[in-house]
Amino acid sequence: MTLAQLRDFHPTRPHRSGQAWDSVDYEGILNGVREGLGFEGIANRIGRRSTAVSGKVRDLLPPEERKARGPVALELLKRHVDDPGYDWRAVLATPDPPRPVVVEKNFGFAGFAREDLIPLIHAVLSAGDSVPREMRTDAVRMAVVLNLWHRIETFRRDWLYLRSDAEMTYHAANEEARQWIYLHSGQQEDELTHPWSRYAEHPY
Q1: Does an H or E element contain 71, and which?
Q2: Are the C-beta atoms of 54 and 39 separated by less than 8 Å?
Q3: CA 149, CA 139: separation in Å to the nearest integer?
Q4: Cα–Cα separations (whole angstroms), residue 46 to 55, 59, 77, 192
Q5: What is the SS3 assignment for 121?
Q6: Concatenated DSSP letters for 40-67?
Q7: In a designed cystine with 68, which of 72, 156, 166, 203 is the match (CB 3.0 to 4.6 A)?
Q8: Please, are residues 36 and 52 in contact by the beta-carbon 8 Å criterion?
Q9: Which residues in 136-161 are b (16+ Cβ under 10 Å) and which e?
Q10: Could you give the CA distance from residue 148 to residue 140 in angstroms, rounded to a whole number?
Q11: Sequence ranges of the domains in the chain
Q12: What is the pTM of this model?
């Protein structure tokens, strides 16, 4: 075959390919299955592509069996069509069951809203050794991942400045908050409390 002939060559399309499916097509599938024909044999008989027939065979199965493929799907359908009481029209009209709804459950810090994480991380880090090191490490990691350090610093500054028992100027509170963030954002391994801060041991 020359290149020109190859360019003009078009494989023969089944005469029903691309047309809407109707009861004649489905009955042709059912009859072919009863006779033991495969996908190609059924497709040739009803004038469809074998890939299309394969999908329709699954549609003729009950919803719980529609994941079957290939010869398994044909065998399942044959068992059903051998039953005179099998209502293939009703089965065909039955939709697939809805996919299960997966409810994502987050635990730990991931289970909190972004706004709630700011005071929570501040409280965990302020607690020092009274909370497990793993929890403090997770708090630092969450602050890094969500880029919360600046907002936690602002929270710390305002919290220090507005404490009823505090006697800190705004400038002093701002400086303490800055140093506090510097200490924790560096994820110090030796100590996560503030020995130089008179507010560290009793943050609340």
Answers
A1: helix 70-81
A2: yes
A3: 11
A4: 14, 17, 17, 76
A5: helix
A6: HHHHHHHT--HHHHHHHHHHTS-GGGTT
A7: 72
A8: no
A9: bebbbebbeeeebbebbbebbbebbb
A10: 10
A11: 22-93, 108-185
A12: 0.46
Tokens of 31: 């009859």
pLDDT digits (tens, 9 = 90+) for 163-199: 767 678 889 889 999 999 988 887 443 443 443 333 4
Instruction: Decide if 180 contacts 191 (C-beta within 8 A).
Output: no
One-letter amino acid at 179 equals: Q
The single residue listed with the structure tokens 């529609």 is 66
Contacts 24+ apart (CB under 8 A), 34-41: 34/78, 34/81, 34/82, 36/78, 38/71, 38/74, 39/74
- Amino acid residing at 65: E
CA-CA distance, 160 to 177, in Å (whole number)?
8
CA distances 8 to 13, 15, 17, 18, 149, Å, are 15, 19, 20, 21, 67
Q: pLDDT digits over 66-80, tens only?
A: 999 999 999 999 999
Count of positions (residues) in the chain:
204
Tens of pLDDT, residues 17-63:
778 899 999 999 999 999 999 999 999 999 999 999 999 999 999 99
Q: Would you call 22 helix, strand, or coil by DSSP?
A: coil
Q: Cα(24)–Cα(161) distance, rounded to whole angstroms?
A: 82
